[in-house]
Amino acid sequence: MSAPRARIWDALNDPEMLKAAIPGCHLIAWSGPQTLDLEIKVNLGVMHPTFKGELALSNIVPAVSYTLSGRGKGGMLGLAEGSADVILKDDGENTILTFIANGGASGQIMKLGKAIIGNSAQRIIDSFFERFGSAAGVEVIPLPRENS
User: Fold this and answer.
1) Superfamily holding 5-136
2) What is the pLDDT of residues 74-114, one digit of tens each?
3) What is the pLDDT of residues 114-132, one digit of tens each?
4) Between these two residues, 39 and 117, which has the higher pLDDT value?
5) pTM for this structure?
6) Burial (Cβ within 10 Å: 0-12, 13-18, ≥19) of residue 36
7) Are 6 and 114 in contact (CB under 8 A)?
8) Is 124:25 a contact under the CB 8 Å cutoff?
9) CA distances from 82 to 13, 55, 104, 121 (A)
10) DSSP secondary structure letter of residue 145
11) Alpha carbon 82 to chain centroid, angstroms
Protein backbone atom coordinates (compact mmCIF):
# COMPACT_ATOMS: atom_id res chain seq x y z
CA MET A 1 0.00 0.00 0.00
CA SER A 2 1.31 3.38 -0.95
CA ALA A 3 1.39 4.83 2.58
CA PRO A 4 3.47 4.52 5.75
CA ARG A 5 2.67 1.68 8.15
CA ALA A 6 1.29 3.99 10.88
CA ARG A 7 -1.24 5.47 8.44
CA ILE A 8 -2.41 2.03 7.33
CA TRP A 9 -2.69 0.91 10.98
CA ASP A 10 -4.82 3.94 11.82
CA ALA A 11 -7.09 3.29 8.85
CA LEU A 12 -7.49 -0.39 9.82
CA ASN A 13 -8.72 0.74 13.24
CA ASP A 14 -11.07 3.49 12.05
CA PRO A 15 -14.70 2.29 11.99
CA GLU A 16 -15.75 4.80 9.33
CA MET A 17 -12.89 3.68 7.09
CA LEU A 18 -13.81 0.03 7.65
CA LYS A 19 -17.50 0.67 6.99
CA ALA A 20 -16.58 2.22 3.65
CA ALA A 21 -14.30 -0.72 2.84
CA ILE A 22 -16.36 -3.74 3.91
CA PRO A 23 -18.86 -4.70 1.20
CA GLY A 24 -22.41 -4.72 2.56
CA CYS A 25 -21.44 -3.21 5.91
CA HIS A 26 -24.34 -1.37 7.54
CA LEU A 27 -22.79 -0.91 10.98
CA ILE A 28 -19.37 -1.12 12.57
CA ALA A 29 -18.70 0.60 15.87
CA TRP A 30 -16.42 0.19 18.85
CA SER A 31 -18.31 -1.55 21.68
CA GLY A 32 -15.26 -1.91 23.95
CA PRO A 33 -11.51 -1.29 23.98
CA GLN A 34 -10.87 -4.27 21.68
CA THR A 35 -14.32 -5.16 20.31
CA LEU A 36 -16.52 -3.88 17.52
CA ASP A 37 -20.19 -4.52 16.76
CA LEU A 38 -20.78 -5.39 13.12
CA GLU A 39 -23.76 -5.75 10.80
CA ILE A 40 -23.08 -6.84 7.24
CA LYS A 41 -25.25 -7.99 4.34
CA VAL A 42 -23.47 -10.75 2.45
CA ASN A 43 -24.01 -11.78 -1.16
CA LEU A 44 -24.06 -15.59 -1.23
CA GLY A 45 -25.25 -15.72 -4.81
CA VAL A 46 -28.81 -17.00 -4.34
CA MET A 47 -29.20 -15.48 -0.87
CA HIS A 48 -28.29 -12.14 0.73
CA PRO A 49 -28.40 -12.67 4.50
CA THR A 50 -27.56 -9.98 7.04
CA PHE A 51 -25.14 -11.09 9.73
CA LYS A 52 -24.98 -9.36 13.10
CA GLY A 53 -22.12 -10.04 15.44
CA GLU A 54 -18.96 -8.89 17.11
CA LEU A 55 -15.33 -8.58 16.07
CA ALA A 56 -12.58 -8.92 18.64
CA LEU A 57 -8.97 -7.80 18.31
CA SER A 58 -6.29 -9.79 20.11
CA ASN A 59 -2.53 -10.33 20.00
CA ILE A 60 -2.22 -6.60 19.32
CA VAL A 61 1.21 -5.18 18.56
CA PRO A 62 0.43 -1.54 17.67
CA ALA A 63 1.23 -0.59 14.07
CA VAL A 64 2.57 -4.11 13.46
CA SER A 65 -0.07 -6.84 13.82
CA TYR A 66 -3.24 -8.18 15.37
CA THR A 67 -5.63 -11.07 15.18
CA LEU A 68 -9.17 -10.16 14.20
CA SER A 69 -11.83 -12.72 15.14
CA GLY A 70 -15.54 -12.56 14.61
CA ARG A 71 -18.75 -14.43 14.53
CA GLY A 72 -22.15 -13.44 13.34
CA LYS A 73 -25.62 -14.85 13.16
CA GLY A 74 -27.42 -14.79 9.84
CA GLY A 75 -30.90 -15.40 11.19
CA MET A 76 -32.26 -18.82 10.26
CA LEU A 77 -29.20 -19.50 8.09
CA GLY A 78 -27.03 -20.09 11.14
CA LEU A 79 -23.65 -18.90 12.28
CA ALA A 80 -20.57 -17.75 10.37
CA GLU A 81 -17.23 -17.20 12.02
CA GLY A 82 -13.74 -16.33 10.99
CA SER A 83 -10.42 -14.93 12.00
CA ALA A 84 -7.50 -13.24 10.31
CA ASP A 85 -3.94 -12.57 11.40
CA VAL A 86 -3.01 -9.19 9.94
CA ILE A 87 0.65 -8.15 9.69
CA LEU A 88 2.07 -4.83 8.48
CA LYS A 89 5.68 -4.42 7.32
CA ASP A 90 7.58 -1.43 6.02
CA ASP A 91 8.56 -1.44 2.36
CA GLY A 92 10.45 1.81 2.03
CA GLU A 93 7.79 4.54 2.15
CA ASN A 94 5.08 1.94 1.53
CA THR A 95 3.51 -0.83 3.60
CA ILE A 96 3.04 -4.51 2.90
CA LEU A 97 -0.09 -5.93 4.50
CA THR A 98 -0.28 -9.70 4.74
CA PHE A 99 -3.00 -11.78 6.31
CA ILE A 100 -3.95 -15.36 6.90
CA ALA A 101 -7.68 -15.94 7.18
CA ASN A 102 -9.75 -18.88 8.34
CA GLY A 103 -13.50 -19.22 8.46
CA GLY A 104 -16.40 -21.54 8.86
CA ALA A 105 -20.15 -21.68 8.94
CA SER A 106 -22.91 -23.84 10.29
CA GLY A 107 -26.51 -24.68 9.63
CA GLN A 108 -28.24 -23.74 6.42
CA ILE A 109 -25.25 -21.72 5.19
CA MET A 110 -23.24 -24.86 4.53
CA LYS A 111 -26.11 -26.37 2.55
CA LEU A 112 -25.35 -23.74 -0.09
CA GLY A 113 -22.04 -25.51 -0.68
CA LYS A 114 -18.41 -24.85 0.09
CA ALA A 115 -17.70 -23.50 -3.40
CA ILE A 116 -20.36 -20.79 -3.11
CA ILE A 117 -19.24 -19.86 0.40
CA GLY A 118 -15.55 -19.82 -0.58
CA ASN A 119 -16.17 -17.75 -3.71
CA SER A 120 -18.31 -15.29 -1.74
CA ALA A 121 -15.62 -14.95 0.93
CA GLN A 122 -12.93 -14.34 -1.70
CA ARG A 123 -15.07 -11.66 -3.40
CA ILE A 124 -15.52 -9.91 -0.05
CA ILE A 125 -11.77 -9.98 0.62
CA ASP A 126 -10.87 -8.72 -2.85
CA SER A 127 -13.51 -6.00 -2.72
CA PHE A 128 -12.41 -4.99 0.79
CA PHE A 129 -8.88 -4.16 -0.36
CA GLU A 130 -10.05 -2.23 -3.43
CA ARG A 131 -12.51 -0.22 -1.34
CA PHE A 132 -10.04 0.20 1.54
CA GLY A 133 -7.50 1.72 -0.84
CA SER A 134 -10.10 4.18 -2.14
CA ALA A 135 -11.34 5.09 1.36
CA ALA A 136 -7.81 5.52 2.71
CA GLY A 137 -6.61 7.37 -0.39
CA VAL A 138 -3.81 4.88 -1.04
CA GLU A 139 -2.89 2.67 -3.95
CA VAL A 140 -3.23 -1.04 -3.24
CA ILE A 141 -0.89 -3.22 -5.27
CA PRO A 142 -1.78 -6.91 -4.99
CA LEU A 143 1.10 -9.30 -4.46
CA PRO A 144 0.93 -12.93 -5.55
CA ARG A 145 -1.25 -15.04 -3.24
CA GLU A 146 0.23 -17.81 -1.20
CA ASN A 147 -2.17 -20.73 -0.78
CA SER A 148 -1.80 -23.00 2.19
Assistant:
1) START domain (3.30.530.20)
2) 776 677 788 889 999 999 999 999 988 887 767 666 566 55
3) 555 666 667 777 788 888 8
4) 39
5) 0.81
6) buried
7) no
8) no
9) 18, 9, 6, 10
10) P
11) 9
